[in-house]
């Protein structure tokens, strides 16, 4: 059974805006799923619906087998949510804020547990500091500590590293990996494709309230990843040279560069044949370089292909 099961979920806000247009998604126990999508794609709406904060207009969602509407308390008790916006009591001390969150779920006080969470998040030294005296990055850590205080089995991180510095971002990734090692299922939304590349097991792309694709990150990158070989030429060409049937070639820079796109997963890349063919044709090569296309290119390609389909 999937940890999170989303079936035909639609959400239309009061006022008529449709934020989710039929979402189906299964999330496996113990995986890290990154949801990528442009602003307004529906990521926060989807997370809020899974956490039972927003009511879907139709469709069903279960977490750990519990329907998030009909069995809200059971479902919510195994979910931790780190919201996008910082919502903390400015005058409260760090440790009390985290203890209080645990209490809200009806769990008994467990100082050893709270200490271990605060240590993991490098907040132990700041335990008696009032929230208002913390930096923005530290406040984000407190949000995570609160979300972990009741030992959730599924953790939602809504843009956890928006606006944090590079060091803190890497720390967050380490924390996420440690939680995964503890068996926690993690769903994060992000605008940073490098973040999905770095930590996700699977990547989902959402746009205009619809999931365009969900796939294992590695297979996605292999399947859609290709490389380009750029051959800089001494003399410009007026057209792509003949004799290279089956090669995806184009000319750039007014004919002074020949660009060959090839599949990185293919058994033979064709590079040797291309270079030999150019030599045979008397085409002098000045320089060569390759560029790997990233998850970012794949993502931009997907979202723009959908926009063209709709146009
Ligand atoms: N309470 C609301 N009432 C009406 N429309 C809303 C409400 N909340 C969100 N929306 C709209 O629903 C759409 C999806 O918003 P959502 O916050 O889910 O997107 P997102 O993918 O999380 O975006 P971002 O990356 O900018 O955080 C947006 O167009 C937003 O304006």
From TrEMBL:
Gene3D superfamilies: P-loop containing nucleotide triphosphate hydrolases. GO terms for molecular function: ATP binding. Keywords: ATP-binding, Nucleotide-binding, Transport. Residues 4-233 form the ABC transporter domain. InterPro entries: AAA+_ATPase, ABC_transporter-like_ATP-bd, ABC_transporter-like_CS, ABC_transporter_ATP-binding, P-loop_NTPase. Pfam families: ABC_tran. This is ABC transporter ATP-binding protein.
């Amino acid at each position: 059974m999937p940890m999170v099961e989303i079936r035909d979920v639609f959400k239309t806000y009061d006022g008529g805006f449709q934020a989710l247009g039929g979402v189906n998604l299964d999330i496996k126990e113990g995986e890290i799923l990154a949801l990528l999508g442009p602003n307004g794609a529906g990521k926060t709406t989807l997370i809020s619906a899974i956490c039972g904060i927003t009511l879907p207009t139709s469709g069903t969602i279960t977490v750990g087998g519990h329907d998030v509407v009909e069995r809200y308390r059971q479902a919510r008790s195994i979910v931790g949510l780190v919201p996008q916006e910082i919502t903390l009591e400015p005058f409260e001390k760090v440790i009390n804020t985290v203890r209080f969150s645990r209490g809200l779920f009806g769990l008994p006080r467990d100082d050893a547990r709270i200490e271990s969470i605060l240590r993991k998040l490098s907040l132990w030294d700041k335990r008696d500091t009032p929230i208002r005296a913390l930096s923005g990055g530290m406040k984000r850590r407190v949000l995570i500590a609160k979300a972990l205080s009741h030992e959730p089995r599924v953790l939602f991180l809504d843009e956890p590293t928006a606006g944090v510095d590079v060091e803190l971002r890497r720390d967050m990734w380490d924390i996420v990996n440690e939680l995964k090692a503890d068996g926690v299922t993690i769903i994060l939304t992000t605008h940073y494709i490098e973040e999905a590349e770095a930590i996700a097991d699977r990547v989902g792309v959402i746009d205009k309230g619809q999931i365009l694709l969900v796939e294992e990150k590695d297979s996605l990158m292999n399947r859609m990843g290709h490389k380009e070989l750029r051959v800089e030429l001494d003399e410009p060409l007026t057209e792509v040279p003949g004799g290279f049937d089956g090669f995806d070639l184009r000319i750039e820079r007014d004919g002074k560069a020949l660009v060959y796109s090839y599949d990185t997963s293919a058994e033979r890349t064709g590079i040797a044949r291309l270079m030999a063919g150019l030599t045979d044709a008397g085409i002098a090569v000045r320089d060569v370089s390759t560029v790997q296309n990233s998850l970012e290119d794949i993502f931009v390609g997907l979202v723009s292909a959908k926009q063209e389909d709709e146009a």
